[in-house]
Design goal:
The protein is an alpha/beta fold. It contains twelve helices and twelve strands. The structure holds iron/sulfur cluster. The site of iron/sulfur cluster has 15 residues, from loops.
């Protein structure tokens, strides 16, 4: 699906941001001015030559997409040229703390909002965003999104990015979400990507799959508590087979690779592969070909390859 970075500036300063540190320094109007964006949006493959819809979603990301000075003109333009499309906003959620902003966005209809919680209180969340006040704004933003959801919300997804700063209290974040936003459409647990500032700040935020693995069973206990639950960026050998049906392949192919030893893994065709930057920073020892036989019910969805797994 088309992913369009519409703005290189951000109002937060996350320590594990995947954008490089010079990303925000570039002149925004070189690549992100409204006229330039109109060209990039128009070129998105939403319809085929016959006018049939081939993708019903367009993802707007950044930086922080909601602070683009022409944000509403961009939404209007997309809805005008691609009326059936669902617009997904990958956002830190902070601007939604303003009621008028939230109402104006949702009135565009069929809006997906995907935002991350990095902690269960201001201290833990703001330590990751390095922006005092960001937790309170994000929480107020989520409250507003639910308050005005009937105006045009399609889905609200809450994400938890797993890093050295967050992995030990992921359960507490889930508990916070269940207490405050039980109606969320989906929770996504995302293992950090070691690129951009995350790579630069590896000593502070870097984490291995092995370090995280013992926390996964505690997280899995929360799956029945929510309407939807996913794991992103997990090669299959880093997670128990009982959770494979929740794993999704969302990394672009050019960012991942397989090892020579993966060739003998019985489940390679269902596996996401390994992020190349992870191999560079951590190495390949953790990845072990799986030889135990399971009954895997596959799907035709390349993003979610496994429907179910049982033991032979
Ligand atoms: S061994 Fe390779 S193919 Fe098999 S699950 Fe691990 S990373 Fe994936």
């Amino acid at each position: 699906m088309p992913v369009i970075s519409i703005w290189n500036k951000c109002n937060s300063n996350c320590i594990m941001c995947t954008n490089p540190s010079d990303f925000q320094a570039k002149d925004s109007y070189d690549n992100y001015g409204f006229n330039e964006l109109k060209k990039r949006i128009s070129a998105a493959k939403i319809f085929d030559e016959r006018g049939n819809l081939i993708d019903d979603k367009m993802i707007l990301t950044g930086g922080e997409p909601t602070i683009h000075p022409d944000f509403f003109r961009i939404l209007s333009f997309i809805k005008r040229i691609f009326p059936p499309v669902i617009i997904e906003l990958d956002t830190n959620g902070r601007r939604f703390c303003y009621d008028s902003f939230t109402k104006k966005v949702l009135r565009f209809k069929r809006i997906n909002i995907y935002t991350s919680l990095h902690g269960f209180n201001a201290k833990t969340h703001d330590a990751v965003t390095r922006t005092p006040g960001s937790f309170l704004q994000t929480i107020k933003g989520i409250e507003n999104i639910f308050k005005y959801k009937n105006l045009g919300l399609h889905e609200l997804e809450l994400r938890i990015i797993i890093t050295k700063l967050t992995y030990k209290y992921t359960e507490k974040i889930l508990e916070f979400i269940k207490d405050h936003f039980p109606e969320v459409d989906r929770i996504v647990i995302i293992f950090m990507e070691m690129e951009g500032q995350a790579k630069k700040n590896f000593k502070i935020v870097g984490l291995t799959y092995t370090q995280f693995r013992k926390f996964i069973p505690k997280i899995a206990k929360w799956i029945p508590e929510f309407k939807g639950f996913r794991f992103y960026h997990f090669p299959l050998c880093t997670i128990d087979h009982s959770l494979w049906k929740y794993t999704w392949r969302t990394l672009p192919e050019y960012e991942i690779t397989f090892l020579p030893k993966c060739e003998v893994c019985l489940y390679k065709k269902y596996c996401l592969g390994i992020h190349k930057d992870y191999l560079e920073k951590v190495g390949s020892d953790e990845f072990k070909p799986i030889k135990k036989k399971y009954i895997v019910e596959g799907t035709t969805d390349k993003y979610r390859p496994i429907q179910n797994v049982s033991i032979k």
